[in-house]
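Changelog excerpt

This revision adds worked examples to the README so contributors can see how folded entries look when concatenated. The first example is reproduced verbatim below.
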Amino acid sequence: MNARIARGALNYPGIGSTEHGQAPEGFPCLVSRTYLGDGQALYRRVAEGVLAWELQKRSGLRVRTESATVVPGARVVSGFGVGPFRINAPCEVVWVRPVALDDGPQSAGFGYGTLPGHPERGEEAFEVAIDASGQVLLTITAFSRHSNWFYRAGGLAARAAQRHVTSRYIRSAQELAAGVN
């Protein structure tokens, strides 16, 4: 096996909580839902992209990962900025829901949690669902606290950065829904 791209253990309470929607006490939670369109083909296209790190890659983050597809335990380091001003965000996948083989209502996606070196401590999940009427929705759920005094001092800027990255994830999902390569 190759050397791990990130070291350490998950560093927050409530590991896996984004799968069931309950953030641990003391961790602010952000939930964003976006309608992407209709139909099974659109759902499958977006779900397959979500499970291949496409939201992260298309959002402009630099993505290094141990696995081309999202699998439990895979580690990923995403980052933004340039040179010495790059902020890296190491995470580990804590749950995965694959695309089901049938065409009924379902959801697919994953959640990953922070590792030492991430500016936050918490978890984020990306889930795409299709309902009985064929509507496809993307839900992004995140709970986190700043990891240290430096990021706490820049609290408003850090929260604004989180909202900005979430909007880029949504735009990436909309591109996948539209079939943009």
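The second example, added in the same revision:
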Amino acid sequence: MERIVVETMVPAPVVETWDAYTSPDRIMKWNFASDDWHCPTASVDLRDGGQFTSRMEAKDGSMGFDFAGTYVKVVENERIDYDIGGRRATVTFTPQGEYTHVRVAFDPETSFPIDQQRIGWQAILDNFAKHCAAAARHA
């Protein structure tokens, strides 16, 4: 099955973008697809073989789920490859002037339609870019 790809341009240098993507306290500020959801917990052991987890849930408590996996390969400020339940994902960070191009390519799951997965992951990545833009304005 073909990988799903989502991407965005982040209005921040790659070092700042990387920090926002890999710091648990910052992950909790952006790792959800809509304003009626949130990410109350996140943990990161950012190294080859390290584990990560985050909890996404509706603010009204009606539903939620854990997103967890293992880092397969970490190249600081460039690339993260990880495994989520036997599926692989790759996140790349490419500097473009004062911006960073972030691209996530992942193996789809079989429980949800491809378009729904693409839309959900893109919404989270868009929220990530908004978080970085707001942080840059307040820096």
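Reviewer comment on example two: The chain has one domain: 4-137. The chain has three helices and seven strands.
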